[in-house]
């Protein structure tokens, strides 16, 4: 696989994306599911809830690369299934990122104005329409379609295809806590994607010194740009 995202980035994403999602899900496990409790927990346990939110959000972003990798594999034998399933899942992941942004804003409001104020605001604004209000079906149907496409193309076996389809049971919406279904969905992603990621990384060509040096310079540059971004 010589085109974007490539075996190294794609393989790393297949491993890290599901693990980050699972970490985020487990970190918020101790706190009740609905948004008043999540906002209260963000004030009472800010470090743990911040870590949960960061892990879950980072996992969704990394999954964009992981899914792109799987879609490319499916497209070799089943291009139409790859296109439709990939489009639905990627839009669904974008919606998850949007929800995470709302979560962050609401939790910041709870930190600055108190959990009761933030809860009242979220309760009033919860039903407001936005673009993704009309696209929630992509989260519900994208993962099963991708699992079926991966099985049909021979990219995943039956068990791992079902595990991938199980990602659809991850609770949908803003400020959602963890349920048993959340854990099922996150574990399903790990079962489906992590072995493929390890295999891709193992098959990747050995990295030469020049590539390693450029990667290190790139990491330093990204870190510096990330810091500068916080100043604006």
Concise summary:
This protein has about 230 residues and is mainly α.
What does this protein structure show overall?
This protein is mainly α and 232 residues long. It has one domain (6-207). It has 9 helices and no strands. It has helices spanning 6-27, 35-44, 46-75, 79-113, 115-125, 137-152, 158-165, 180-203, 209-229. Helix 2 crosses helix 4 (79-113) and helix 4 runs antiparallel to helix 6 (137-152). It is globular. The termini are far apart. The mean pLDDT is 93. Keywords: Membrane, Transmembrane, Transmembrane helix. This is DUF4386 family protein. The chain crosses the membrane at residues 12-31, 51-71, 83-102, 131-151, 158-175, 181-202, 211-229.
For the biggest sheet, the summary is: none
What multimeric state do the chains show?
single chain
Name the helicity range.
over 70%
Count of helical stretches: 9
Shape: globular
> Total strand count, please?
0
Transmembrane segments: 12-31, 51-71, 83-102, 131-151, 158-175, 181-202, 211-229
Keywords: Membrane, Transmembrane, Transmembrane helix
Protein name: DUF4386 family protein
